[in-house]
Structure formats: structure tokens, C-alpha cells
Write a structure and sequence with these properties.
The structure is a single chain. This protein is 68% helix and 6% strand. By secondary structure, it is mainly alpha-helical. It has two domains: 229 residues, no CATH class; 93 residues, secretion proteins EscU (name from scop, 3-Layer(aba) Sandwich), CATH 3.40.1690.10. The chain is elongated and about 130 Å long. The protein starts with 13 loop residues before the first helix and ends with a helix. One of its GO terms (biological process) is protein secretion.
Length: 351
């Protein structure tokens, strides 16, 4: 059955998540950045408004004074424009800095450290008109449309209710001076923006949760894909089994090659065989050079007989030695028993 015909029921593996991340495909909501920018901009404006208006008032005054003695030449016009640009840059630099910082952290907190150029690589499939049209009728497009309509409707309704609630108070502004009118308008605007920020934060949380869910669904795998990935990363089980079998055969051949140099073979007598070797000059204790059970035990005894290696039957010692690995020195608990066996063998060889 093809992968496309199988249901994606398996959770994404770590490798698949890394592959998606390298391609820049991560759960990220634009609403988070918008909500964060609006909220922090409003907070900045609360503390910066007074300084901003004072700076703006001073700028207007200086421009008016400059225009009183302004001589219209190309050089003076350029100088005036540069002066105005410098003044506006001085007024607006906190807003620009806030936009950069909030935009960076809004993205960083959602996806973490990520730098990839994969989305910018040329892809011919992106120019496919059929796929392009499909995006306009996709589930994501429908969700975006519904979300945009809901956002506009909700914010519009809240703004309307806020202004409507202040309508009676606005009627009392008739006959008041301009400063009080501007103060009232600023208060109403602040209420509208504050409620809008609250709505945007709620929508951002919902949209980010939906983006996470959508990405998890997109990354899900079929059972066949999981098997194929396991083969790619861990290796084909059949191949690994074959390699393991070949390694065992090679190790067994090396082990059998050590039997002719052994000093003694201790048996069970028929089910187990353990070959020991001891060199006083190079070894601290006797070492197991070969061991085996059943057919392998029989083969060890055959090689020992062919090479005149003594074979000693001792069931308890054979069983205890069989528990240790080939190449290991015997444990201290076996020193006495093995020493007696070696003494017996040395006497046989008259050594």
C-alpha cells in the first residue's frame, strides 16, 4: 500500500521534527507579533506621549521661526529637509527600536533559535498555477478568512460600544476649550486601543495553539514512514542481523584458534566446555580463551583432543567459568579450584 493511501496516525519522530525545522516549517503565529507590537506600543505611548508632544511642539516652533527668515534656494531647501528628517528621527527612534525588539522576541519565543535559507531556495513547484490556486481554497485559507472576519467584527463591535458609552460625555464638550476636547479624545482612544490589545492577545493565544496543532497534524507519519526512517537511521534489521551473525562467526573463529594454545579445557562434561590459559610472566590470573555450549562445546573438545590439550571434567567449575566472558581473567572465587585443576594438568605434563 502506498504511503499516500495510509493514514497518518503516528506522532512525528525527532528526526522528522528536525527535518521540518531545517526547512523553516515551524509553528508560528503572525497574530502573536501583531498583538505584542500593539500592546507594547500602547505601553510606550503612555510613558512617551508627554515627551513626544513637547518635542513636537518645539519642532513646530523652530520650523516656524526658520520659515520667517527662510530664503528659497535649492541648498536651503535640502538643509531644511535634512533638519526635519533629523527631528522626526529623534522623535520616532523609540518606536523603531521597539518594533525591532518586539518583532525579534515575538518570533524567537515561538520558534527558538532558528536560521535557515531553505525557504528562499528556488523551487519550480512554487510557480505551478494549479497548486497556487489550491492555496486559496485550502483549509488554512478558510481559517485565515474566518479569523480575519472575526477579528475585524469583534474589534469593530468593541470600538463601537466604547465610543457609544462615551457619547453622552462627548455632548458636554460643547463650549469647552480645545485642550479639554483633545484630552477627552485621547482618553477614548486609549480605551479603544486597550480593549483592542486585549482582544488581540486572546486571538494570538488561540491562533498560536491552532498553529501548533496544525503543525503536529502535518508532521504526523504513516507506519510505513516510521519503518523507513528507522531503516535509514538505525539500519535495516535484516542487514543488521546478517552483520551481527558475521561478527559472531568471526569472533567464534578467533576463539577456536585460541583453543590449541590453552592449558586445559574444563567440561560439564558434555554440555559446556571452557578453555583456560595461564602464563605466569604475562598474566595475573588464568584467562578464559574460549567457551561454548552443546555443539560448540563438542567442537572445543575436538580441537583440544587434536592438539593434545588436557580435558578435565568438573561440573561446578565449568558452570561457574561459563558465566564469565571470553578474554576475562577468572574471578577470585575460582582461584583455588582452577589452581587445583592446573596443578593436576601440570603434573600430567610433568611441568
Amino acid at each position: 500500500m502506498a504511503d499516500s493511501d495510509q493514514e497518518r496516525t503516528e506522532d512525528a519522530t525527532g528526526k522528522r521534527r528536525d527535518d521540518f525545522r531545517k526547512k523553516g516549517q515551524v509553528a508560528q503565529s503572525k497574530e502573536v507579533g501583531t498583538a505584542a507590537l500593539m500592546t507594547f506600543s500602547l505601553l510606550l505611548w503612555i510613558f512617551y506621549a508627554k515627551s513626544f508632544w513637547m518635542e513636537l511642539d518645539g519642532m513646530v516652533r523652530s520650523v516656524l521661526q526658520m520659515l520667517a527668515t527662510f530664503e528659497a534656494t535649492s541648498l536651503s531647501a535640502v538643509n531644511l529637509l535634512w533638519s526635519l528628517a533629523g527631528i522626526f528621527a529623534k522623535l520616532l527612534w523609540p518606536v523603531f527600536l521597539l518594533t525591532l525588539v518586539v518583532g525579534f522576541f515575538a518570533s524567537f519565543l515561538q520558534v527558538g533559535p532558528l536560521f535557515t535559507l531553505k525557504p528562499f531556495e528556488p523551487d519550480i513547484s512554487k510557480f505551478d498555477p494549479i497548486k497556487g490556486m489550491a492555496k486559496f481554497v485550502s483549509k488554512r485559507s478558510a481559517v485565515e478568512l474566518i479569523k480575519s472576519l472575526a477579528k475585524v467584527s469583534l474589534i469593530g463591535f468593541v470600538a463601537y460600544r466604547t465610543v457609544a458609552n462615551e457619547f453622552d460625555a462627548a455632548l458636554t464638550l460643547v463650549g469647552l476649550d480645545l485642550s479639554q476636547t483633545l484630552l477627552f479624545l485621547g482618553k477614548v482612544s486609549y480605551l479603544v486601543l486597550a480593549k483592542t490589545c486585549g482582544i488581540m492577545i486572546v486571538l494570538a493565544v488561540i491562533d498560536f495553539a491552532f498553529s501548533k496543532y496544525e503543525m503536529e497534524q502535518k508532521m504526523k507519519m504513516t507506519k510505513q514512514e516510521v519503518k523507513e526512517e528507522y531503516k535509514d537511521t538505525e539500519g535495516d534489521p535484516q542487514v543488521k542481523g546478517r552483520i551481527r551473525s558475521m561478527q559472531q562467526q568471526a569472533a567464534r573463529k578467533r576463539m577456536m584458534a585460541e583453543v590449541p594454545q590453552a592449558d586445559v579445557v574444563v567440561t560439564n562434561p558434555t554440555h559446556l566446555s571452557v578453555a583456560l590459559k595461564y602464563d605466569r610472566e604475562t598474566m595475573d590470573a588464568p584467562t578464559i580463551v574460549a567457551k561454548g555450549g552443546d555443539h560448540l562445546a563438542f567442537r572445543i573438545r575436538e580441537i583440544a583432543k587434536e592438539n593434545e590439550v588436557p580435558i578435565v571434567e568438573n561440573k561446578p567449575v565449568a558452570r561457574a567459568l561459563y558465566q564469565q566472558e571470553v578474554g576475562e581473567q577468572i574471578s577470585e572465587e575460582m582461584f583455588t579450584a582452577v589452581a587445583e585443576i592446573l596443578a593436576y594438568v601440570y603434573n600430567l605434563k610433568k611441568r
